[in-house]
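Example 227, ligand flavin mononucleotide.
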Amino acid sequence: MILVINGSPYRENSTTLRLTNTFLQGMGETAEVINTVDLHINPCLACYACWMKTAGHCIQQDDAIEVLEKIREADLVIWTVPLYAYAALANCKSLIDRTLCFNKPEIYVGEDGKTHHYGYEDGSKRTVLISSGGLPDIKGNFDGLVFQFKHMYGEQTVAICCAEAALFMYPETQPLTAGYLEAVRKAGAEYKEQGKISEETGQILDTPMIPRVAYIQNTNAAFAQVK
Ligand SMILES: Cc1cc2nc3c(=O)[nH]c(=O)nc-3n(C[C@H](O)[C@H](O)[C@H](O)COP(=O)(O)O)c2cc1C
């Protein structure tokens, strides 16, 4: 089963979800979509009951419990996370914190030399991160989010980070976004086939749709008209 966790307050009109739906098209798969903005997800209480008492189950009683069970059952979870303040937006972050219940308390040093808690190592649960942001940069913008996902859910986590996402808002820029969406579709097909995205497709996804300077100028000109 494929589970999509969509954090965007725009729900089905979300740019990030559009990318996820295109990725799924490429995979030739459908998925259950959960809009976390509609759910009541408490912050983690840091009670550690899931580590000490309840064998991996959170003791809070809120909407996160059903989502956590769905994550537990899913073969693939596609986190659809708009970038807010260089990180996951708050409703997804609360849920990410609550996935602590899938980890074990023991600490080990991974092959990367970093310390981890056991959790996703057996590879039975796959994770894809799809994010979008309004700034033109990938480096220095999405780094924290990607680091977090790879650390939490394993180095094999595939990440698609779409910069310049404001281009998806205008009909005039459709020729530019169409090319990006085509690469996302290809990424979905490759992921289905090989469990990863080819270097060639990854490079297209990591290349801004228009040059950075032009994007900055156009965005600033559009905002100047609003004032
Ligand atoms: C509170 C807030 C913080 C944001 N912070 C960033 C940011 O740090 N970097 C960035 O590139 N875009 C940022 N954005 C822009 C969104 O990430 C961008 O519009 C995204 O494409 C929205 O996706 P959605 O349509 O799926 O909700 C921010 C937007 C909001 C509302």
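Summary: Residues 8, 10, 14-17, 82-86, 132-135, 141, 165 surround flavin mononucleotide (CB under 6 Å).
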